[in-house]
Amino acid sequence: ILNVEQSPQSLHVQEGDSTNFTCSFPSSNFYALHWYRWETAKSPEALFVMTLNGDEKKKGRISATLNTKEGYSYLYIKGSQPEDSATYLCAFGDGGSQGNLIFGKGTKLSVKP
Amino acid sequence: GAVVSQHPSWVICKSGTSVKIECRSLDFQATTMFWYRQFPKQSLMLMATSNEGSKATYEQGVEKDKFLINHASLTLSTLTVTSAHPEDSSFYICSARTGHRYEQYFGPGTRLTVT
Description:
The complex is a heterodimer.
Chain A: E1 5-7, E2 10-14, E3 19-24, E4 32-38, E5 45-50, E6 56-59, E7 62-67, E8 72-77, E9 86-93, E10 101-103, E11 107-112
Parallel strand pairs in A: 2-11
Antiparallel strand pairs in A: 1-3, 3-8, 4-5, 4-9, 6-7, 7-8, 9-10, 9-11
Chain B: E1 4-7, E2 10-13, E3 19-25, E4 32-38, E5 45-51, E6 57-58, E7 67-73, E8 76-81, E9 90-97, E10 104-106, E11 110-114
C-alpha cells in the first residue's frame, strides 16, 4: 500500500514568521508530486506539480523543493500572512494510466495576526 | 479557468434513501473525473475514476452497487449513494482532469449526513 505522510499535522505561527512542512512519499515508481492549498469551504487549489528530482518551484511567498531519490518534498512559506491559513495537501502520482493521486492527510496552518 | 462545481454542498438524508451528487467542469472538458471521500482527520481517499462514456473503475473496498457513478458527458459526472446508511456520512469531493495528464481540478465538496 502506497503511503504519503505529511508533517506536522498542524502548525500555528505568528504573522511574519516563515514556516515549512514536509511530505514523504514512496521513492519508487515516482511520476509527479502535487501540492494543493485548501481553504475551508473552498475547492483545493493547485499550487505546484513537480516531476524532476531537485526541482524547486516558487509562487509568490510559497516555494517547494523535491527529492525523489529519498522521497520527500518541502513546502516553504516566507513571511506568513493570515490569508495563508489553510490546509496544505501533497499528493503522489505514480504514473498510472488514469493519473490517480494518493494524498497525505495534510498540514493545517493557522497564521495569527 | 479550470473551475469545477459540485452540488449540493451539503445534504442530510434519512437512512435507506438515495442521494445524488453532481460534479461539473464549468470551463473545460473533463475526460476523466475522480470521486474521493474524506473521513474526519483522514486523507482524501479515492473511491473511483470515471472516464466519459465508460464504466467507472472502483477502488478496492468501494461497493460499485452502492456508489453509482455516471459520467455521461465531458462536463458532468454524478455520484449516487444508494440506500444510504449513517456510516456513509462523510465528505465527498470530485476532481476533473483535462488533457494534461496529472493536473486535477477539484470541486468544493459535499458534506453528506445520513440520519
